Automatic annotation (TrEMBL):
SUPFAM superfamilies: Periplasmic binding protein-like II. This is Tripartite tricarboxylate transporter family receptor. Pfam families: TctC. InterPro entries: BUG (IPR005064), Bug_dom1 (IPR042100). The lineage of its organism: unclassified sequences, metagenomes, ecological metagenomes. It comes from marine metagenome. Transmembrane segments: none annotated.
């Protein structure tokens, strides 16, 4: 009887210790970071930079996978539907808030778990060189005199650059012909190819072409000028009351264990806070401002509350009315 008890006790201890070892081993294989946009754009570039830093800081590599489609909705859905084992995480931007009101099949904010905040990003308006448009005043004068003639490259309805263009239309009484692309990189390619006349994408995507004279950055929709293009005025400076920004955050599927979430949160905050990473990211035009999960959830909630009436006034709320 004693021998049987000892064997049973040993078996239990082995099981418990085995579980403890397995739990302590996380992560023990590569982690996938889903980016819902095409390669080459700002979201892809920033997340590849983050993945590189995380791969240095963690015992396993972090691998970026681009899953595009439906204005970012497909990649977000793939992340939300992933097994909540801590080995699949994803990036979302402000488009995740807009899409839930324009796309009945899009994920809502409660479909995922916030892990950490990467940083904010203001909207920009740029015009292709062939248009001859060099200032915001010229843009608005032409847009008002020629409704629908300016072709604006952006993402699908609900995406950030589409929202930015739509809000400009509603706010300033203009009409643009909005042309959707699958990400910021192809949007800029479309501008350079003459497929569209203007784009509403962030500065990292257009700064090199601006310096090369292939396009002109007309204005930034922020309360202050951007550190990467301090010579570009804000909309407010030019007399146009337009402030609108995006953001990038890291999320995971609902159901990830608390210890794994804490591990990921800690590692991401440390990576984004790293002085070398900060310098590299800012040189690329990003403004990394890390925050934890609680602060990130609060930020997105407040952004959603701010954005909804803007979308409503611009006629972009099609589903999930409040």
């Amino acid at each position: 009887m004693v021998k049987i008890f000892k064997k049973a006790l040993i078996s239990v201890l082995i099981t418990v210790l085995g579980i403890s070892v397995a739990q302590a081993a996380y992560p023990d294989r590569p982690i996938t970071l889903i980016v819902p946009w095409s390669a080459g754009g700002g979201s892809d570039t920033s997340m590849r930079m983050l993945a590189e830093q995380l791969s240095k800081d963690m015992p396993v590599p972090v691998v970026v996978v681009n899953k595009t489609g439906a204005g970012g909705a497909m990649g977000t859905k793939a992340m939300c539907d992933a097994k909540p084992d801590g080995y699949t995480i994803g990036m979302v931007g402000s488009g995740v808030t807009g899409r839930q009101y324009s796309n009945p099949n899009a994920n809502v904010l409660s479909d995922f778990t916030n892990i950490a905040f990467f940083g904010p990003e203001p909207a920009f308006l740029s015009a292709g060189a062939p248009t001859g448009i060099k200032t915001l005043e010229q843009f608005f004068d032409y847009a008002k005199a020629n409704p629908g003639k300016i072709r604006n490259g952006n993402d699908n309805p609900g995406g950030f650059s589409h929202v930015a263009a739509s809000v400009m239309e509603a706010k300033f009484g203009i009409k643009l012909t909005k042309v959707p692309y699958k990400g910021y990189a192809p949007t800029v390619v479309g501008l350079l190819a003459g497929e569209v006349d203007t784009v509403t994408v962030p500065v990292p995507n257009v700064i090199d072409q601006h310096k090369a004279g292939k396009l002109t950055i007309l204005g930034v929709a922020d309360n202050q000028r951007h550190f990467m293009a301090p010579y570009v005025p804000t909309f407010k400076e030019m007399g146009y009351d337009f402030v609108l920004g995006s953001f990038r955050t890291i999320i995971g599927p609902n159901g990830i264990s608390a210890d794994k979430l804490k591990y990921l949160e800690k590692k991401i905050i440390a990576a984004v806070s790293n002085p070398d990473f900060q310098k590299k990211a800012r040189n690329a035009g990003f403004n990394p401002q890390p925050m934890g999960a609680v602060e990130t959830a609060k930020y997105i909630k407040e952004f959603d509350e701010m954005l909804y009436p803007v979308l409503l006034s611009a006629g972009l709320v099609k589903v999930r009315h409040k």
